[in-house]
Design brief:
The complex is a heterodimer of chains A (366) and B (248).
Chain A: H1 2-28, H2 37-52, H3 57-79, H4 84-104, H5 106-109, E1 115-116, H6 129-163, H7 169-194, H8 198-222, H9 224-234, H10 236-241, H11 246-272, E2 274-275, H12 282-295, H13 300-324, H14 329-350
Antiparallel strand pairs in A: 1-2
Helix pairs in contact in A: 1-7, 1-8, 1-11, 1-12, 1-13, 2-3, 2-4, 2-11, 3-11, 6-7, 6-8, 8-11, 12-13
Chain B: E1 2-11, E2 14-24, E3 29-33, H1 40-47, E4 55-60, E5 63-64, H2 70-76, E6 78-80, H3 93-100, H4 111-114, H5 116-137, H6 152-165, E7 170-174, H7 182-197, E8 201-205, H8 209-215, E9 218-223, E10 226-231, H9 233-238, H10 240-247
Parallel strand pairs in B: 3-8, 3-9, 6-7, 7-8
Antiparallel strand pairs in B: 1-2, 1-4, 4-5, 9-10
Helix pairs in contact in B: 3-6, 5-6
C-alpha cells in the first residue's frame, strides 16, 4: 500500500510537471502543441544516455531540458510564422519522427531493446536518521504549502459563494477529496522515507522540483512577461500593434514549456528505471491535454489538480472496476479509456471552462 | 512626420492601393476619407506594415520604415487601432492598458527574476498612468472588468486609451466613430482634440463627415486606391471630383 501510494505520488507529479509545460504553451500562449511528448522523449533519452557515459545527473538533466528547448526552437522557427493550425500538425508529426528516430537509431538508443541500468538519483544513497528526518521535514513543508494554497483557494470560493448567496458544495467536496488523498500520500511518504527506499527519495526530489517550477510558473504568469503571452493568446495582432515581438514570445513559450517537459522526461526515466521508444506515443501528449482541459486551461493550480484527478481515476478504476465488472484485462483497459472520454464529454457540457476555469470568461464576446 | 510615396499593393488582379501618396504633418490631425472599398484600411495596413507593400516608400520621423516589422514600427512611436475594435477579451481592462506600456523591464523573461524590484516599481507607475488615462476616457470604473464585457463604444475608447499608453508620436485611428452613439462620438472627438493639444499627431480614417470636418487640419481623399484630392476640409467640401466620387 505504502509502495503504491509513493508510486501514485511520483506518477502524478510527473504528469503535473509535464502538463504544466503544456499549460504554458496552450493555456497561456494559445499555441496548439499536439506533440508535447517529443520534448519528454528528448529530455528522458538525453539524461539517461549522458548518465551512462558518466556525466553527472546534475549536468545531464539541464542538458536534457536544454536539448528539449532547442527542439522547441527548431519547431518554432519553422512553423510559428505560419497560421496556428499548422503548428498542431507539425508538432504531432515531429513527436512521431522523434519516436521513430529513437526506435531505429540503435547505435544511439538501443532501439526496441530500450535503455536500462542507467544511473538513478539518490539510488545508492543510504541516509542516516538525521538525513531521513530532514527529508521528512522537507516533505512536510511541501505538504503544508499545498494545504495552505488549497485553503486560500477554498476561502476565496467561500467568499464568492457568500456574495452570490450559495455554499460552494462542489468546491468543498473537491477540496475534501484532494485533502484526504494528499494526506494519504503524505503519510505514506513519511513512512516510506523513514524506511528509506529509492522511490521515496525520488518522490521527495520530484515534489521539490515540482513545487519550485509551479511557484515560478505562477510568478511568470503574473509578470508583465506572462501578460504578453496572454495577450498573444487573445489576439496576436493587438500584441503586434502594441509593439510586442510576438514571434519571439511564442518561441520563448514553446522552448520553456519544452524544457519543463524535458525535466518531466528525466523523472519518467528514473521512475521506470528503463525506457523504451514505445513509452513515448502520442497518447501521452493527449493525456496531458486531458489534464489541462480538465483542470482549466491557463490555470496552474487547475493543471496540478487535473493531474491528481487523472491519476486518482486511474487508480480507482484499476482496483475497483475488476471487482464490479466481468471483463478481462484487455477489455477493462479499453473500458477505462472509454469512461475517461465520457467523463470529459460530461464535464465539457456541464463545465466547459474546466474545473477551476472561470465561467464568465466563456460568455465574453471577442 | 509621416510620409508615403508611390505605395502600391495588389491582391491578385485587384489593385487595392495604387501609387498612393500621403503626408502627415507633425502636430496635425490629418483625415483620410474615401468611398467604401477605396483602400483606406489597406493603406493603413501598408503604413503600419501589417501588410507588406509591393511598391513605394514610407518614411516616419525621417527614417524609412517599410522594411521593419509591425512591432518595431509601434516601438518607434507609430501606433494603430483597428476598424473593428480589438480588445483582449479575457484580460481585464487594466491589463489591456498595461500591455500598452513600452520598454517594460518585466517583459523580459530573465528580468522577472533578476530585477524583481524594478519590475514591481514600474508596474506601479504604469498602473497610475493607466488609471489617469482611463479616467480621462471615462472607463475608470471598468478597470477591473473583463475587456470582453465592454460595449462596442467602450471598446473603441479602450483601444484609443491603450494606444495612448504606448506614449506614441503618431496614432492611426481606423474609424473611431463607427458604430458609436452621438454622445460618445462627441466625447471621442473631445479626447482627440485634447490629446492633439498635448502634442500627439493623428491620422484618422472616418466616414462621419462632421467628425472629419470639425477635427482635421488637412484631408486626403482616396478613391479606387488612388489619390483623388487633398487639402483643407473646406477645400475638399467644394471639390467637384470628391463630391462625384461620394455621390456617384
Amino acid at each position: 500500500m505504502v509502495g503504491y501510494l509513493v508510486f501514485l505520488a511520483i506518477s502524478t507529479g510527473i504528469a503535473a510537471l509535464f502538463s504544466l509545460g503544456l499549460n504554458l504553451q496552450w493555456g497561456y500562449t494559445g499555441l496548439i502543441n499536439f506533440g508535447h511528448v517529443a520534448f519528454m522523449t528528448v529530455g528522458a533519452y538525453t539524461t539517461v544516455l549522458l548518465a551512462l557515459k558518466g556525466v553527472p545527473l546534475i549536468i545531464a538533466v539541464p542538458l536534457g531540458a536544454g536539448l528539449a528547448a532547442l527542439l522547441g526552437l527548431l519547431i518554432g522557427l519553422s512553423t510559428l510564422r505560419l497560421r496556428e493550425d499548422y503548428l498542431a500538425i507539425v508538432t504531432i508529426g515531429v513527436s512521431e519522427v522523434i519516436r521513430l528516430i529513437v526506435l531505429n537509431e540503435e547505435w544511439l538508443t538501443r532501439g526496441t531493446f530500450g535503455v536500462q541500468g542507467f544511473p538513478l538519483p539518490l539510488a545508492t544513497w543510504s541516509p542516516n536518521l538525521l538525513m531521513r528526518l530532514m527529508m521528512i521535514a522537507l516533505l512536510t513543508l511541501i505538504a503544508g504549502l499545498t494545504f495552505w494554497r488549497m485553503w486560500q483557494w477554498f476561502s476565496k470560493e467561500l467568499q464568492q459563494g457568500k456574495t452570490e448567496n450559495r455554499f460552494p458544495v462542489g468546491s468543498l467536496i473537491l477540496g475534501m477529496a484532494s485533502s484526504l488523498l494528499g494526506l494519504a500520500v503524505y503519510v505514506a511518504g513519511v513512512m516510506a522515507l523513514y524506511d528509506y527506499t529509492y522511490k521515496a527519495g525520488l518522490m521527495v526530489l520530484l515534489l521539490l522540483v515540482l513545487t519550485v517550477i509551479f511557484w515560478q510558473m505562477e510568478r511568470l504568469a503574473r509578470s508583465p512577461w506572462g501578460r504578453v503571452l496572454k495577450a498573444i493568446r487573445e489576439d496576436e495582432e493587438v500584441a503586434k500593434a502594441l509593439g510586442k515581438n510576438v514571434f519571439w514570445y511564442k518561441l520563448q513559450s514553446l522552448m520553456l514549456g519544452g524544457a519543463i517537459a524535458g525535466i518531466a522526461g528525466s523523472f519518467y526515466a528514473w521512475q521506470q528505471t528503463s525506457i523504451y521508444a514505445d513509452d513515448f506515443i502520442p497518447l501521452t501528449t493527449f493525456e496531458a491535454w486531458t489534464i489541462v482541459v480538465l483542470g482549466g486551461a491557463g490555470n496552474n493550480v487547475g493543471t496540478v489538480l487535473g493531474a491528481i484527478i487523472f491519476w486518482a481515476y486511474n487508480t480507482v478504476t484499476r482496483f475497483v472496476l475488476p471487482a464490479l465488472l466481468p471483463f478481462d484485462d484487455a477489455r477493462l483497459g479499453a473500458f477505462r479509456v472509454m469512461v475517461i472520454g465520457l467523463l470529459l464529454m460530461v464535464l465539457m457540457m456541464a463545465r466547459p471552462q474546466g474545473i477551476l476555469g472561470k465561467k464568465e470568461e466563456l460568455t465574453l464576446g471577442r | 512626420m509621416l510620409a508615403a510615396y508611390g505605395l502600391g499593393k495588389s491582391f491578385g488582379g485587384l489593385r487595392a492601393v495604387d501609387d498612393a501618396k500621403l503626408e502627415v504633418a507633425q502636430g496635425s490631425i490629418t483625415g483620410l476619407i474615401g468611398p467604401n472599398g477605396a483602400g483606406k484600411t489597406t493603406l493603413f495596413n501598408l503604413l503600419s506594415n501589417f501588410i507588406r507593400s509591393d511598391r513605394g516608400r514610407v518614411i516616419f520621423d525621417g527614417e524609412p520604415i517599410q522594411h521593419l516589422q509591425p512591432h518595431q514600427i509601434a516601438q518607434m512611436g507609430m501606433v494603430r487601432t483597428f476598424q473593428v475594435a480589438r480588445v483582449l477579451s479575457r484580460l481585464s481592462v487594466m491589463e489591456n492598458m498595461l500591455l500598452g506600456a513600452q520598454k517594460q523591464t518585466g517583459e523580459n523573461f530573465w528580468n522577472v527574476w533578476l530585477q524583481p524590484k524594478q519590475v514591481i516599481e514600474e508596474e506601479k507607475q504604469q498602473r497610475e498612468r493607466a488609471e489617469a488615462i482611463l479616467e480621462s476616457v471615462g472607463l475608470a470604473h471598468m478597470a477591473g472588468a473583463y475587456a470582453g464585457a465592454l460595449s462596442g463604444g467602450q471598446r473603441k475608447l479602450l483601444e484609443m486609451a491603450r494606444a495612448l499608453m504606448t506614449d506614441p508620436k503618431l496614432i492611426l485611428l481606423d474609424e473611431p466613430a463607427a458604430g458609436v452613439n452621438p454622445t460618445l462620438i462627441n466625447q471621442i472627438c473631445d479626447r482627440i482634440v485634447t490629446w492633439n493639444r498635448e502634442g500627439m499627431t493623428f491620422l484618422i480614417i472616418e466616414h462621419n463627415m462632421d467628425v472629419i470636418m470639425s477635427l482635421c487640419d488637412r484631408v486626403w481623399v482616396l478613391a479606387e486606391g488612388r489619390n483623388l484630392a487633398d487639402g483643407t476640409p473646406a477645400e475638399i467640401q467644394q471639390n467637384a471630383q470628391v463630391l462625384e466620387a461620394y455621390l456617384g
